[in-house]
Specification:
The complex is a heterodimer of chains A (486) and B (111). By secondary structure, chain A is mainly alpha-helical. Chain A has 15 helices and no strands. The N terminus of chain A is likely disordered. Chain B is built from 2 helices and 6 strands; from the N terminus they run βαββββαβ. The mean pLDDT of chain B is 91. Classes of the chains: A mainly alpha (486), B alpha+beta (111).
Chain lengths: 486, 111
């Protein structure tokens, strides 16, 4: 192509002008102004000298659009990751810390905090790779051990628009809170050394395989990346709540009751702390569920709304049950109900609309109330802070109801036009959910029993009775939560 | 004469103000827990009921010249009474000696 002086500079001006015209509105938002671009391009195309320039410009445009989407998605996902971390500390730490007796406050909070540090290091070494490396049925690979190959480029299997680094750190926050939930059942009597060792092993042996099975490529229960039993679990009904809740029950049974339980009163020492913690959990859960869309899109909005509605409905139904039974609605009941609703809506959040979310919340609030007040009393296990009653039961109910209420209108996960849940016309999904639930239960049960035996041999599990009476703050950590006289 | 009065926390401000009006400045106040004939209440946490039978009360202690004691008792009776079970009790006892630590004054001068 010949390029005569004036013509060359003229086409350069045109190219620049077109890029400016096209790029400015696109990088902001789609406004009617961007419709001016095609006519510019058309006049541009009329000159025979320019196809190369045009294709360069289009390539550039394509890059700009992708960069804009990535920026938006990345911003939301980084905020979501921070929100999910906030659920553990201070959210769960305060929620649990307020529910124990004063002498065990710091020990309770310290368990959550220790996991924030411990699981993070484990995640960097092998954890992320075991969850999201490779495409095995049961567990990931060492492909990303030491975070090899995890950088600015997206991992298209999981989240194609954000740096894999962001995806990695977002998923880490889930791995932190899951073992922290278990500490609700072991509260006020488990050794710190035993807790640390048990939960580290539990993360490797129970959490990592389960996360891979449900969310990992090729995982046995994966719904969209080639699983045999496609289980719908948007944000962790099976991976987070069933796994931690069922393991919590096993821990409570293995450890035995707290000294003096149930005769001696063990009321929460500060419901104010628990209240603040529960409210932080509620807010953090938006990152947990809406963030699980892995993009800042309409699915994230839908999951956000479902999460909020589920929590609200469950707070009401727990309170109503309590009001009918005791003649009063308690603050502890309302916040417990909200947490139960958040748990139950977790697997469903990205598959159901607002109305089913209300129904799921209503059912979960009442059912978990019944679990912690009636079922626990009948069987007599000491699930101190109701990790099983809320997370195990709520997670199971949520996972099951996800199979009933999931809709392709919200999330066409099985392909366009294919029904997703039971009411959508695909009742087989309830069966798939049952398989997923069953595998998660068995996995958590067996893994936890084996690990508890091992840890019991290595460090011991339970503190001596005199330490339990004196309190774990002093005996395990050498400090007190409240030195009001000093 | 020593006066110990155990009263409802809700009446404490009124009692204190009334005592100040009749010229009583010194008193020792303790937050205490206890119960007499009053029954406690139940608290329910996630379905577990606890009976709380030790209820919060305020204990006032004053050591006074004998001449003032009756007026103080009358004032406390008037202001601390709600007429319900749980209003508390007043105990009077003799005091052997009183000593002001600052200057070692003794007897009524120390009060």
């Amino acid at each position: 192509m010949k390029c005569v002086g004036w013509k060359c500079s003229f086409s350069l001006v045109l190219v620049l002008g077109a890029i400016l015209l096209a790029a400015v509105p696109l990088s902001a938002q789609q406004t009617p102004a961007s419709f001016a671009v095609p006519s510019t391009i058309a006049s541009f195309l009329a000159t025979p000298e320019t196809p190369k320039a045009l294709s360069e410009k289009l390539t550039q445009l394509d890059k700009d659009v992708k960069a804009a989407q990535s920026s938006a998605d990345n911003a939301w996902m980084l905020v979501s990751a921070a929100l999910v971390l906030m659920m553990t500390g201070p959210g769960l730490a305060l929620f649990y810390g307020g529910l124990v007796r004063r002498k065990n406050t710091l020990a309770m909070m310290m368990q959550s905090f220790a996991l924030m540090a411990l699981i993070t290091v484990m995640w960097a070494l092998v954890g992320y790779s075991l969850c999201f490396g490779g495409d095995g049925h049961f567990i990931g690979s060492f492909e990303h051990a030491f975070l090899r190959g995890v950088g600015a480029d997206p991992n298209p299997d999981y989240a194609g628009t954000i740096p894999q680094t962001t995806f990695m750190v977002y998923q880490l926050m889930f791995a932190i809170i899951t073992p922290a939930l278990i500490t609700g059942a072991t509260a006020e009597r488990m050794k710190f050394s035993g807790t640390v060792l048990f939960l580290t092993l539990w993360f490797l042996v129970v959490y990592a395989p389960l996360a891979h099975m449900v969310w990992g490529k090729g995982g046995l229960l994966n719904a969209s990346l080639g699983g045999k039993f496609p289980t719908l679990d948007f944000a962790g009904g099976t991976v987070v709540h069933i796994s931690s809740g069922v393991s919590a029950l096993v821990c409570a049974l293995y450890l035995g009751k707290r000294t003096g339980y149930p005769k001696q009163p063990m009321p929460p020492h500060s419901l104010v702390l628990s209240f603040i913690g529960a409210c932080l959990l509620w807010v953090g859960w938006f990152g947990f569920n809406a963030g699980s869309a892995l993009a800042s899109n309409s699915l994230a909005s839908s999951a956000f709304v479902a999460t909020h509605f589920g929590a609200a409905a469950a707070a009401l139904s727990w309170s109503a049950a309590e009001w009918i039974k005791n003649g009063r609605a308690s603050a502890l009941g309302a916040i417990s109900g909200a947490v139960a609703g958040l748990v139950a809506i977790t697997p469903a959040a990205g598959f159901v609309g607002p109305m089913p979310a209300l129904v799921i919340g209503l059912i979960a609030g009442a059912a978990c109330y019944w679990m912690v007040t009636k079922v626990k009393a009948i069987f007599g296990y000491d699930d101190a802070l109701d990790a099983f009653g809320v997370h195990g039961a709520g997670g199971t109910i949520g996972a099951l109801l996800t199979g009933v209420f999931a809709q392709q209108v919200i999330n066409p996960i099985f392909g366009a036009g294919k029904p997703v849940g039971g009411l959508d016309g695909h009742w087989g999904q309830v069966g798939n959910q049952l398989v997923g639930i069953l595998i998660a239960w068995i996995f958590a049960l067996v893994g936890t029993i084996v690990l508890l035996k091992i840890v019991d041999l290595l460090t011991g599990i339970r503190v001596p009775e005199e330490h339990e009476i004196e309190g774990l703050d002093i005996t395990q950590h050498g400090e007190e939560a409240y030195n009001l006289e000093s | 004469m020593k006066i110990e009065a155990i009263i409802q926390p809700s009446r404490f401000e009124s009692v204190k103000d009334a005592l100040r009006e009749i010229g009583i400045e010194g008193m020792t106040v303790t937050e205490v827990r206890g119960h007499g004939r009053q029954k406690g209440h139940t608290e329910v946490y996630r379905g577990r009921e606890y009976t709380v039978d030790l209820l919060p009360k305020i204990k006032l202690e004053m050591v006074l010249p004998d001449a003032l004691a009756n007026r103080v008792v009358d004032t406390i009776l008037r202001t601390a009474k709600t007429g319900k079970i749980g209003d508390g009790k007043i105990f009077l006892s003799r005091v052997e000696e009183a000593i002001r630590i600052r200057n070692e004054e003794r007897g009524e001068n120390a009060l």
